[in-house]
Specification:
Strand content: 15-25%
Number of domains: 3
CATH class of the largest domain: Alpha Beta
Bound molecules: zinc ion
Largest sheet: 5 strands, parallel
CATH architecture of the largest domain: 3-Layer(aba) Sandwich
Mean pLDDT: 90
Radius of gyration: 25 Å
Shape: globular
Length: 467
């Protein structure tokens, strides 16, 4: 497989440290709130990467952390602890919040057919590992203590800016406006490994350490958890592009200072999902969760297809109109597959040929859109029988995970009531519901049509539809 590597800024042939085996680490959620669909895009594309590697024959071990302590509202060690913020908001303890939102996260993942990583480790379960690494960093002169906190000295790190591509000049002026100066830091980019005292609010969860009662910084969690479960040499580290700096930059600095050699060979980053106004964030506008989409009648598989249709390294623009198109495409595709008879011989040669074409397509820097093209072309291939087509769809779906062969048989044929007159009647009912400000009913009507592969488009001259 060829894969873009953020570290080298080039597309490279993927070669794991040990032939046939892949050690993969992915930054997990900070469990203080629901994940928005932009976060889920990252986990979804990481899932596709993992499944494609397995499909291509690798044995993959994937580890993910769950951040339940130490992640401040700014990635640069300032602001409030996110977990504490969540606890206050809901008048619960930090552990109750962590438990609730961790379950909610994996529930979202399962509805999107995102496989649970082999190992999922909450940060609070690895405090001993973090302490051991921090002690070694202090002993080797990579860290220092100031006002009770332990900091990593980034001026000691070899090639600190390699991943981010920042230069020292940019770092001097600061990359984020919300990072306020911490007078304890020797260098602006230094970061906290262990907090005992800080100017921030008191922490609910604290542990004994050689430096006093305290809690770990966010960055050390991922290095510690990865090294604990995957050892000293990692093949692929994944995350969203917003993790490149400072999080992943700091992970590399501390891991390599601790290990004394290169840590991870490939860095895989998924681009943002934006809404039409720009970056999607939890603080602006409608909080887009998977549950919200479902309440509007969308099948999670429509969102999965929406993500697969575009390249993970390109920003993806979310709008309901775009999602409607994906939802209609999903219904159409699922029906097409449901209409394939499972009876008859399977052409093993064709299966191998299409497998090779699929690996070729998706293997080019996880080009899922090209993989879908191979699927559509195969469905049009007149030389193949139904059973063979069905077998190939099922094979590709090991990577896509779109449940394409699991759709009920009643979707084989369009319902008889999908006449133009019926659709126009529905459009009129929806317009009436909107006038009466009954948006739930309006959404339900739109969703009902979408289920049948009919997409409504609202224009200033009224609503049009397409199949
Ligand atoms: Zn991380």
């Amino acid at each position: 497989m060829r894969l873009y590597n953020t570290l080298t800024k080039t597309i490279e042939e993927f070669v794991p440290n040990e032939a046939g085996k892949v050690k993969m680490y992915t930054c997990g959620p900070t469990v203080y709130h629901f994940a928005h669909i932009g976060n889920l895009r990252t986990y979804l594309m990481e899932d596709v990467l993992e499944k494609f590697l397995r499909y291509a024959g690798y044995e993959v071990t994937r580890v993910m952390n769950v951040t339940d302590v130490g992640h401040l509202t700014s990635d640069g060690d300032t602001g409030e602890d996110k977990m504490l913020k969540g606890a206050k908001r809901e008048h619960k303890t930090v552990l109750e919040i962590a438990d609730f939102y961790e379950k909610a996260f994996f529930d979202d993942c399962s509805r999107l057919n995102i496989r649970r990583p082999d190992i999922v480790q909450p940060a609070t379960g690895c405090i001993d590992v973090f302490i051991q690494i921090i002690a070694a960093l202090l002993e080797r002169g990579y860290a220092y203590i100031a006002d009770g906190n332990v900091y990593f000295d980034t001026s000691k790190a070899k090639d600190y800016d390699a991943l981010s591509g920042h230069n020292t000049e940019e770092l001097k002026v600061g990359v984020r406006d919300d990072v306020s100066e911490d007078p304890n830091k020797r260098n602006k980019s230094d970061f906290v490994l262990w907090f005992t005292k800080s100017k921030f609010e008191d922490q609910e969860l604290k542990w004994e350490s050689p430096w006093g009662l305290g809690y770990p910084g966010w960055h050390i969690e991922c290095s510690g958890i990865s090294i604990r479960y995957l050892g000293e040499r990692l093949d692929i580290h994944c995350g969203g592009v917003d993790n490149i700096f400072p999080h992943h930059t700091n992970e590399i600095a501390q891991s390599e200072a601790y290990l004394g050699h290169k840590w991870c060979n490939y860095w895989f980053h998924v681009q943002h999902l934006n809404d039409e106004t720009g970056k999607m964030s939890k603080s602006k506008g409608e909080f887009l969760t998977l549950s919200l989409l479902e309440s509007k009648g969308y099948d999670p598989m429509a969102y999965r297809l929406f993500c697969l249709q575009s390249h993970y390294r390109k920003p993806l623009t979310f709008s309901y109109a775009n999602l409607d198109n994906a939802a209609a495409a999903y219904v159409k595709l699922a029906r097409r597959v449901a209409g394939l008879s499972a009876e008859g011989p399977i052409d093993a040669g064709a299966l191998e040929r299409y497998r090779a074409a699929f690996i070729d397509a998706v293997g080019q820097d996880l080009n899922t859109a090209q993989g879908l093209t191979v699927l559509y072309d195969m469905l049009k291939d007149a030389s193949l029988g139904d059973a063979t087509k069905r077998a190939i769809v099922s094979d590709f779906d090991r990577v896509f995970s779109l449940d394409l062969t699991k759709r009920p048989a009643e979707e084989k044929t369009p319902a008889a009531d999908e006449t133009d007159a019926w659709i126009l009647q529905k459009i009129a009912e929806r317009a009436e519901a909107k006038r009466a400000k009954n948006y739930a009913l309006a959404d339900a009507i739109r969703a009902e049509l979408l289920e049948k592969g009919i997409v409504l488009t609202d224009t200033k001259d009224g609503t049009t539809y397409s199949r």
